[in-house]
Design goal:
Blueprint: H1 5-14, H2 36-42, E1 48-51, H3 57-67, H4 69-76, E2 78-83, H5 89-94, H6 96-100, H7 104-124, H8 137-149, H9 161-171, E3 178-182, E4 185-189, E5 195-196, H10 210-228, E6 231-236, H11 248-263, E7 269-276, H12 277-284, H13 293-297, H14 308-319, H15 323-328, H16 333-338, H17 340-350, H18 364-371, H19 381-401, H20 413-435, H21 440-443, E8 450-454, H22 455-462, H23 466-475, E9 480-481, E10 489-491, H24 494-497, E11 503-506
Helix pairs in contact: 1-19, 7-9, 7-10, 7-11, 8-10, 14-17, 19-20, 22-23
Length: 508
């Protein structure tokens, strides 16, 4: 099919492929792909959802938080309450000094109070559930009493995330150290710099504090849900951004959160945690071990991975969310949802059959899939969307620069290659540099070099600790094994090559 320049310019100008950032993605609901992890979460089979950065964790979280609550309440009697959104990241960082002082047990207390506050604010006190809770007044009163005994005061008015966090930290049971003794006696300074007057010591059997009463709080919340025949999911995301990365604080905080999964795990009450798989490995594989890990991971989803067929569905769903393109190419929207062969067919109405000329070239879809794959075999929706967005923009530029129409493809081969090159530069900056600053000086040694290395070449390039460095670079997907004639060869995946200006071939 031939496309006239003016017509194609108009179509591309109106084509919106969405955003690779879930919080900004306008097509998240209309173009969603229902993976096995989506299905398992929908059917309450999983509570812990790990995945690589960009694999779709935040997108899945947002689908459940923003688009499915009405369906879940009406069809499954599930109430969604959620914590930690992107806009709250800086607020968490504002409390860094206070968080530094928390032990792992303190963080368990913190998360318990935080999750109870979510349940209270977004469920018990929310007017939209008033009708569902009309016969649970006794259970609600018992819940509020147990919160008071656990020293969790009720939030009287709607508060910002900053105010809630300050309130939670103030509500925690603190062992307050004595800092000064003067003529009037000792006094203490709490986390917020406020003077705490001496109190009478607690009696041996005196009730008080969160650790003793959290089970009662949970049981009373479960009683409300049972009475109302409802289920409550407390969903938490963006955990890779709220604490300083790869720090002891982050490890203590997230280990504490994982342990709350066991506390808030009842027939009617669940905590759903979305967490990067590398962080999950980091916080559970330390020298101190992680007791009862099998209980926590018993409801863990499969790692979020995308097959070539799922990537095809992702692409065509986003392309033909555009009514203009759909009408122009006469696409059957209903058939598109159910027929994989049809998805293949319409994909190649937009893109060329191959990206490079020649009889032995792979099909364009396979080329895109393999060229954005890292050394661990991971392909993410974020990278697909980024590549295609840049390719679309490049195609628009080519249309404006050339009047030699018509064009054969909506998005042509040179535009796709450009999209990969721009994606590679972004991966260099936002993944290799930003995520792994301690590895970057070694990664930078590969810049403007070759794409394949023998062990001898790596030893020469990286120095005496080359073996450990290679293991690290393999773990993050920067290198991959590629045996050649019985010799171990390590190769840099396509997705990183343009960003480092590499030349194809083997290093001497």
């Amino acid at each position: 099919m031939k496309h006239e320049i003016d017509e194609l310019t108009q179509i591309l100008g109106q084509l919106d492929l969405g955003s690779s950032v879930a919080e900004q993605d306008t097509l998240l609901e209309t173009a969603r792909v229902e993976t096995s992890v989506f299905t398992d979460l929908l059917n309450d089979r999983v509570d812990l959802i790990p995945g690589t950065k960009g694999s779709g964790k935040s997108a899945l979280y947002r689908i459940f938080v923003d688009f499915l609550p009405t369906f879940l309440l009406g069809q499954r009697r599930v109430v969604i309450a959620h914590g930690v959104r992107a806009e709250g990241d800086n607020v968490f960082h504002a409390f860094k000094e206070q968080f530094e002082k928390l032990s792992e047990q303190d963080f368990i207390n913190f998360w318990c109070i935080y999750l109870v506050s979510l349940a209270h604010e977004q469920f018990v006190k929310d007017d939209k559930y008033k009708e569902y809770l009309r016969y649970a007044s006794k259970e609600i009163e018992a819940f509020r009493r147990s919160c008071q005994l656990a020293k969790i005061p009720e939030i009287k008015a709607r508060k910002t995330l900053r105010e809630v966090l300050e309130w939670v930290l103030q509500a925690m049971p603190w062992p307050r150290p004595t800092l000064k003794i003067d003529k009037e006696g000792s006094y203490e300074i709490d986390l917020f710099g406020k003077r705490v007057e001496p109190q009478e010591p607690a009696k041996p059997n005196e009730a008080g504090g969160l650790p003793r009463y959290v089970n009662q709080v949970k049981d009373n919340l479960e009683a409300i849900l049972t009475k109302a025949d409802l289920y409550l999911w407390l969903m938490v995301d963006r955990l890779d951004e709220i604490f300083p990365r790869r720090t002891e604080m982050e490890t203590r905080a997230l280990r504490g959160l994982l342990r709350t999964l066991q506390i808030f795990q009842t027939p009617h009450l669940r905590v759903k945690i979305f967490l990067r798989d590398d962080i999950l490995g980091q916080i559970t594989s330390g020298s101190e071990g992680f007791t009862a890990l099998t209980h926590i991971t018993s409801r863990q989803s499969d790692k979020m991975q995308w097959s070539e067929g799922q990537i095809l569905t992702l692409i065509v769903n986003r392309l033909f969310a555009s009514e203009v393109l759909r009408k122009y190419l006469k696409i059957d929207k209903d058939k598109l949802k159910t027929n994989k062969n049809y998805q293949q067919q319409v994909f190649y109405l937009v893109f060329p059959p191959t990206v490079h000329t020649g009889s032995r070239q792979s099909k364009t879809l396979h080329w895109i899939y393999t060229h954005i794959m890292d050394g661990n075999g991971v392909v993410t929706p974020r990278d697909v969307i980024d590549l295609l967005t840049r390719a679309k923009q490049k195609q628009q530029d080519e249309l404006q620069a050339s009047r030699n129409g018509p064009f054969e493809w909506v998005i042509g081969p040179s535009a796709i290659r450009y999209g990969l090159a721009e994606l590679s530069k972004r991966k260099r900056d936002t993944y290799l540099k930003a995520e792994f600053p301690r590895f970057w000086p070694k990664i930078e040694l590969f810049a403007k070099g070759k794409t394949k290395y023998s062990e001898a070449a790596l030893k020469k390039l990286l120095g005496k600790d080359w073996h450990k460095i290679v293991d690290d670079l393999l773990s993050i997907g920067f290198l991959q094994d590629a045996e050649q004639k019985g010799q171990r060869i390590l190769e840099i995946p396509f997705v990183f090559r343009d960003g480092l200006e590499l030349t194809r071939g083997k290093a001497e």
